[in-house]
Write a structure and sequence with these properties.
The protein has seven helices and ten strands. The protein is α/β, with parallel strands linked by helices. Bound molecules: S-adenosylmethionine (SAM).
Length: about 250
Amino acid sequence: MNGKLYGVSVGPGDPGMITRRAWELLQCGAHWTYPIRNEKSDSYALDVVRRSGLALPENHTALIFPMTHDKEKLTSYWLRAAESVLSILRRGEDVLFLVVGDASTYATFSHLARTVSSIDEAIEIQTIAGVSSFNAAAADLQMPLADTDDTLAIVPAAYGVEMLDRLLADFDTLVLLKVNSVLDQIIDQLEARDILKDSAFIERAGMPEERIVRDVAQLRGEKVNYLSLLLVRNRHRIRGPKVRGCRKKKQ
Ligand SMILES: C[S@@+](CC[C@H](N)C(=O)[O-])C[C@H]1O[C@@H](n2cnc3c(N)ncnc32)[C@H](O)[C@@H]1O
């Protein structure tokens, strides 16, 4: 019988944010897999689990997912990773794929799971929900993400800073992920719209090296870590008239 594939969210960095469900799975003797960018790089997800005190099991495999927007190259790596995972599943072993933050949010797991299913649709797959980076960031920054009728957008900034203009018309809060390569451009845009002062930056949320920067302008020209994000409160958003969600009860 084939093993089962699990996408195991391990939270953004603080081992205390590994859920009980993930914690149990990590200790059930399954084969661990985790993403790395290249042969020489470390895995953020594995690092979180290591800091929880759990040792790497005997059966573990690093899977390479390079940082590139080249679809063809990515597809070939997804395929290679899926084949490697399938060979373990077909030996009857369960496989855990460790994911930093939440496994359903901009996570490599969705590509891996989709590719595995496309090769063998009989493989059982389960995603274990977790704490995302921006949930932890909002808590650490004491910046609520949304309240009452606020609107919230979660955006991978590296895929187009131009979209900010459109989003600011409709959203009260923006969570900007993957900001490291476009940080200066974002700072310029937020400053031009007079909302830079309502923004906050967090790097490696939940990790021992966590850094919070509230004066985001000071980051101009700085090289920041890949694990960093911006929370933006858009106080200039023009709202339409209030719409009530509940009708008044008939007497
Ligand atoms: C591929 S996405 C992964 C998102 C992740 N699955 C989640 O639920 O948060 C990578 C981006 O998530 C954000 N991120 C992940 N972990 C983070 C952390 N500990 N601190 C700050 N940002 C983090 C960064 O913006 C990073 O560029």
